[in-house]
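quick one, 547 residues, struct below
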Amino acid sequence: MVESMGEGIQRDPAKEILTIPFNSKRKYMLTVYSSEDPSKYEVYAKGAPEILLPHCTKIIGKRGVEKPLEKQKEIETRILKQNARIGYRSLLLAHKTINAADFDIEDYQNEESYVKLEEGLTLIAIVGIEDPLREGVKESVEVCKQAGIAVRMVTGDNIDYARSIAVQCGIITREEMDPTNLEYKEYGCMLGQDFCREVGGLVKMPDPEDPTKVKDRVGNPEKFAQIIRELKVLARSQPEHKYLLVTGLKEDPRNVVAVTGDGTNDAPALKKADIGLAMGITGTEVAKEASKIILLDDNFSSIVTALKWGRNIYLCVRKFLQFQLTVNVVALAVAVVSGFAHFVVPPINAIQMLWVNIIMDSFAALALATEPPNEKLLLERPYGKNESILTKSMLRNIACVAVYQVAVLLAVMFTKPEFVLGVVPTEDKAFSKLLNTMIFHTFVLMQIFNEIACRRIKSNEFNILEDFFNNWRFIVIMVVTVAVQVVLVQSGVRGINTVALNLEQHGMCVVLSFGVIIWGLICKALVPESLFSCVKEEDTVCLSFNL
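---
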């Protein structure tokens, strides 16, 4: 069958008559070779023991002598289950000799015809193959559980081996598999064919969004809902079983379904899922094309890393959105009030507003978008597909901080000048220019402090300086913004229309602006989110990884 070639061994293609390749449905590979005896062909098979063992009628005993195989049940119990318990994948090797005159390759063109070659095999050996877990997989599964993610194993391996690996990974516990234990889950581990039968398989139904089209649905949604609450391991599954599982999970709009796969047959499930993750090394091109994400290192730990960065990006968008909406609300309010008050010169002119826009759209975006992720992100619940990007906490923060900023700016605009400016005005025009400079300076400084406050936008986050000094980009952007602002105010550049402020006036602007942080923390502690119940948030969201 093979020939030595230097230090390696290579198949002899000249002796290969027929090859039936391995697939996920057949679960074995079979090859027909010519032998030294021209009248005989050798048939070699390797694959899943539970598939090939029933077709074995003989076994090679001591000294290579064939004898009848009489202890199949003992082999299954003593060898296969033992291998599975210690985490070994079992592979059966078998062969038989056939008459060359009775073999016609044209007779073996479909699955049904392969049965002739399966019968009467001689068992050579059952090999236990150790497939150790990659480093960090167990920890990653635990992190997924803490993050509200239900991890399910969908495998073509036998159920005993699948259970063993699932326990090692932390996907399921031994208590959940023990019928005598209170934590026992009846549907925790299932065979793919049993799962398909229980849930009624797939049925075609009219698409509610387009009656002219049909849509795949689970035959028995009630039974599926019952099973899926417990299901952790699906063994001896076919690609259609994986597709059925994904279809059923997606019928619940609260679920976000992610699927990993590497084979061509996984493509339908990868495409059906909300997030398809293909293997970059072992994955086929078809699987990669059907996926949204490709794991370059084929490592489950990379999924957790992607999850952490994905959540961080979404959170950064929310931070920036809260900051930008606050600036817009305050700027609009000041413009409207000054217009109704008939100010000859607007408190914030067009050039000044352009600088504010640069802060709001460029500097703030860079500062808040460069916030690195932290491990706490993985302890939060997943975001719902239909959840509003604006949360109740964000609306509360926007409303409260905007009220404070508008109140401070209006106080500067309308209170006695000697109180605000620290001097008694001697000329209306000079007073107006000085007042507008104070308003502009206070407004910009409030946005800088609000930018710092927007680093932590959730109700339980009071330490706005957490990890602040770990993000040098944020600090540099803040320093540059403050420096440019001071230069604009003190220089009185033409078009900016400002006058230089003294230390006392600068100090008053800083104190009034810093109040944004104090006021924001007070509102977080005292103002309930329930006042902003108009925002849609999904309380029961489940992100499911089907591996």
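The chain has three domains: 2-129, 137-304, 313-532.
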